[in-house]
Request: fold
Amino acid sequence: METKRQDKISRLIQRDLSEIFTLESRNLFNSSMITVTKVNITPDLSIAKVYLSLFATPDKEALLNTIKAHTKLLRGQLGNRIHLQLRVIPELHFYIDDSLDYIEKIDNLLSDI
Reply:
């Protein structure tokens, strides 16, 4: 169970990373649409697990690897935005959120019945 502090920090990181991805997607990620669906932060606020939905890309794994390669840049930009709220900017670990794909698969299976 997350504390109120963890919840507030998670929402702050989610909002700011969403804005960063919107601004940087044209330059760094070939205009792919990247949505931050969820952020989980550890109780000590040192690691943030960021779940992403990736659209308009043929190869999601390659895009995720590109995002991971730019983690230092993204963390630096995040730090410039939230340095007044946090003493230490958490490490960012990125994961693909495939819940929308799962929902679509279930929906297709049910429509076939």
